[in-house]
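Record copied across here:
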Amino acid sequence: MRGSTDDPFCDTAPRFPRVIGHRGAALAAPENTLAGFRRASALGCHWVEFDVRLTADDELILLHDDRLERTTDGRGRARALPLSIIRQCDAGSWFDPSHVGERVPTLTEAVEVLAALALGANVEIKAERGCAVETAVAAVDLLTRMWPPHLPLLISSFIAEAVAAARDRAPLLPRGFLVRTVTRNWQRRAEALDCIAVNADHRLLRPATVAEIRKSGYSVLAYTVNDTARAHELFDWGVTSVFSDVPHEILAALSPDFPPRAAATPVGIRPGDAIGGRS
């Protein structure tokens, strides 16, 4: 991969940790929040994954869904609302009363907190139809300006146009090929997007597929793994890293002597949430 001389990203693949906190630590703190990042750090994570999308006034925020309802007390499509309205929403009380007043963070705020916590990140680009390129360019431009050069970073998206835009805008920024299932033409698509990793749904992975990807020189990142036995199985297959809502449990299972920096007590999750099955 080649970039301009002022590109802050080096031409090497990041060293992925075994466990990456999914949306922060999504069963221990409200997802995609600054509180979630702090919790993930306290639980022993060195990387987190989170989702980025644009508001109506082209501000970058952290939010998984197109709409606000599931993870805030607000209503409506994020892309149809300005940041000033979205910032009035409570993004923590749905999870637990202790998080009342948590706000939907901007990407700028997220980078500042991650820098303070020394956390690497997988930034996933989310976008409504027709907004993928614009979102990717805005995110990459901000990350190029703000991301600490000593911290690892990966950008990914289910939307090929977003990954291509990131490739063209910042060629040295490492990219992940994000899919539900690994199809026969996976390598051709990953090569076209100049990716270094394949991020796939762990439920649809098979040992032969993992072996093929690793033999081809790519890392394999599996989402979303909340069962310790399954994590062990995936690592035995050769999976590089797993995304987890309960990273402390997976870390403890990998190393019985693992000492998290804070006690882990996952609290309430809204009924019907499917945190474990989506990236």
Notes: The chain has one domain: 19-258. Residues 24 and 36 are 5 Å apart (CA to CA). Confidence is low (pLDDT under 50) at residues 1-5, 261-277.
